[in-house]
Amino acid sequence: MSTFRALTSRRPFTLLGIVLALVVIGAFVLVALNAGTTSNVPYQSVVVATKDLAPRLPIDAASLDVRRIPVASNYPQVFFTKVTDVQGMIPLVTILSGQAVTSNVVVQASQALGSQSEYLPIPSGFVALTIPTSEQQGVAGFIQPGDYIAVIATVSTAGHVASLTIFTNLHVIRVGANSSSGSSSGASSLTVVVTQCQAEVITWFLQYAAMKYSLESFHDYLQPDNTTKDPGCPSIDSAKGVTLPIIQKAYPTLF
């Protein structure tokens, strides 16, 4: 009777031991299965971001690297294998650091449209202003993005006609083409970088004077580009408007 009682009292511990053994064996089986599954996933060298990449900003080479990552065999092949293939492209969404850059989240700068287009290269304290142009007005279409131009205004008033260079070294960042012509000779507009104060003056002259542009020699371009704020107009809030008396005072030889 005492032997039976002893066996009965040990039975719960025996069952617990069996359960624990089964749990340990199951864990080993799962680890083995996962290891086998992982080993079957192919690795591929692809371009990844080394920092968070914001939309609308061109990607530079320093923000990219080539790393080996696991790629499912049934996953669409939309990866890039060379940094040079991605450099200069525009993210459509935020690409996180360490994330692979895929063809469905970036576009070429020339293909970026609307809200997904890249930011215009406007330095802090400056604005972009679009001015009309034509073959005779704009150096026969030879003005291209990256060039610098001078602006000449001709005023005719009370029988007095005068011309004066009102601005020099305006940086051209975009050239708009006529819908009927995709060539540079069909340019219809130039987008230039100016201060807001300059933008007001140019707008006045566009309304009341004739405008013409001259293309500066690339040997005379300022280096670096116009990135230093104008002390007389450091922000867009500095512009207070222009009137005829203000223009006459600033450009007395025109009147």
Question: How would you sum up this structure, described in words?
Answer:
The chain is α+β, with helices and mostly antiparallel strands and 255 residues long. It has two domains: 46-114, Type Iii Antifreeze Protein Isoform Hplc 12 (Alpha-Beta Complex), CATH 3.90.1210; 127-226 and 236-254, no CATH class. It is built from four helices and nine strands, in the order H-E-E-H-E-E-E-E-E-E-H-E-H. It has helices at residues 2-39, 83-86, 196-208, 244-250; strands at 43-49, 64-70, 90-91, 106-107, 127-132, 148-157, 160-177, 187-194, 210-215. The strands form three sheets. It has a five-stranded antiparallel beta sheet, with helices on one face. A two-stranded antiparallel sheet has the order 1-2. The protein has a two-stranded antiparallel ribbon with strand order 3-4. A hairpin with a 2-residue loop joins strand 6 and strand 7. It is elongated. Mean pLDDT is 82; it is low at 179-184.
Describe the structure concisely for a colleague.
This protein has 255 residues and is α+β, with helices and mostly antiparallel strands. Helix content is 24%, strand content 26%.
Spatial gap, N to C terminus: 129 Å
Number of domains: 2
- Would you tell me the structural class of the helices and strands? alpha+beta
- Average residue pLDDT: 82
Helix content: 10-25%
Main β-sheet description: 5 strands, antiparallel
Radius of gyration: 34 Å
Set down the secondary structure blueprint.
Blueprint: H1 2-39, E1 43-49, E2 64-70, H2 83-86, E3 90-91, E4 106-107, E5 127-132, E6 148-157, E7 160-177, E8 187-194, H3 196-208, E9 210-215, H4 244-250
Antiparallel strand pairs: 1-2, 3-4, 5-8, 6-7, 6-9, 7-8
